[in-house]
Amino acid sequence: MAKLSPSILSADFANLKEEIEKIEEGGADYIHLDVMDGTYVPNITFGPPVIKKLRRTTKLPFDVHLMIDKPERYIKNFVEAGADLITVHEESTIHLHRTIQEIKNYGIKAGVALNPSTPLDNIEYVLEDLDLVLIMTVNPGFGGQSFIGSMEGKIKKLRQIIDERNLNIIIEVDGGVKLDNAKEILDYGADLLVVGSEIFESEDIAEKTKAFKLL
């Protein structure tokens, strides 16, 4: 079965508690929280206060994706808000290894996100410290974009590297994931799918979540 991390970026924020309950009913494994600062990406979403409030509504693990500049400034805040896993972008921090270690020192999981143009080589020397690598299959900043087809090779190459080195790392894929391409993406080597509009803009959120879980 597919592992699923629905992104609430596409949810109805006026009914967020109810929509989280629906993805729980559908069998979601995580909740994906896209944090944007308007600097690293051209959009602004929410921060630790919102996440802290949401933490009271669900026991699902919080998969916090920081699309922010200098994320090391706020790691403690997001941990205290309830993050179970924090992912930072390779380009967003000068000292990537130090930032990864800071996340892990709080006893939670650490991930690194790679934009479509960011090569896998950029994480060569931190790979063994990671719990997750997030392959962005759209350019970050907005929901509803189409999957960039050339990312197929990137996912496959990362899968090969992880298997050859016998590492325990989750490959997460975020961007343009739909029911009609999700099985292919899993076949490329993904472990965890981030899905936004395909779930939250559907007529039955719980049923659409279940449909992904049955892939």
What's the CATH topology label? TIM Barrel
Strand order of the biggest β-sheet: 1-8-7-6-5-4-3-2
Stretches with pLDDT under 50, minimum 5 residues = none
Shape field: globular
What is the CATH homologous superfamily assignment?
Answer: Aldolase class I
Provide the domain count. 1
Report the CATH C-level class: Alpha Beta
What is the CA–CA distance across the termini?
6 Å
Number of helices: 8
Largest sheet: 8 strands, parallel
CATH architecture: Alpha-Beta Barrel
Tell me the series of helices and strands, N- to C-terminal. EHEHEHEHEEHEHEHH
List how many beta strands DSSP finds.
Answer: 8
* Helix share, percent: 25-40%
Instruction: Give the radius of gyration.
Output: 16 Å
Could you walk me through the main structural features you see in this protein, from its secondary elements to its overall organization?
The protein is of the alpha/beta class and 215 residues long. The protein has a single domain (3-213), classed as Alpha-Beta Barrel (TIM Barrel). 34% of the residues lie in helices and 19% in strands. The chain is built from 8 helices and 8 strands; from the N terminus they run βαβαβαβαββαβαβαα. Strands 1-8-7-6-5-4-3-2 form an 8-stranded parallel sheet. Helix 2 (48-55) links the parallel strand 2 (31-36) and strand 3. The radius of gyration is 16 Å and the shape is globular. It starts with a strand and ends with a helix. The mean pLDDT is 96.
